[in-house]
Design goal:
8-stranded mixed beta sheet, globular, Structural Genomics Hypothetical 15.5 Kd Protein In mrcA-pckA Intergenic Region, Chain A, alpha+beta, 176 residues
């Protein structure tokens, strides 16, 4: 049963990195009234990104992000669009793209409402480590993992130095 507006204080959403296999994802509880600008900040935190790059949301035929005078298409201001408008029902979705060069596409799907007693801004579940910034998108990331798995590869030490000795692509950490 869907909660009424009076009973509902937010949504559970799943943020999934498109083309990842196995799937890299997070489930998060968010409050009603959250702007897409604030959702962007939350995605950066829970996915492990550093917010170095441009981003945008795509919802139906709309582009939502940070408008710029040199935009070649209309971009709605993400500060003026709220999750309440997007996640009207379970299964509602929006696309989030981060770093237009690497092309990190995320599918964000509503898993339904949360109730008044539930906590918001809470990571509920997830899988896999988030890829590092500037590694060439999902396919560049998988190439790096392939190199890491081969100690004899000529780029192994360089990639290991960049990723760190303790990087584990299978590790998901629930915090924050």
């Amino acid at each position: 049963m869907i909660a009424t507006t009076e009973e509902q204080k937010g949504f559970r959403i799943k943020i999934e990195l498109r083309w990842s296999n196995p799937s890299i994802w997070r489930t998060v509880s968010i409050p009603k009234g959250l702007s897409l600008a604030e959702l962007h900040e939350l995605i950066q935190i829970v996915m492990g990104w550093e917010d170095y790059h441009l981003h945008q949301f795509k919802y139906k035929n709309r582009i939502i992000g940070v408008p710029h005078p040199e935009d070649w298409q209309e971009v709605e201001d993400e500060r003026d669009v709220f999750v309440d408008e997007i996640f009207l029902r379970k299964g509602s979705r929006i696309e989030y793209e981060y770093d237009f060069g690497d092309g990190w596409i995320h599918d964000i799907i509503s898993l339904g409402p949360i109730k008044l007693e539930d906590k918001v801004f809470k990571v509920l579940d997830g899988a896999m480590a988030c890829p590092p910034e500037d590694c060439g998108g999902i396919y560049g990331y998988y190439r790096m993992l392939e190199i890491l798995s081969d100690p004899e590869h000529e780029e192994h030490d360089e990639i290991q130095g960049w990723m760190g000795d303790d990087f584990d692509p299978n590790r998901f950490e629930k915090a924050p």
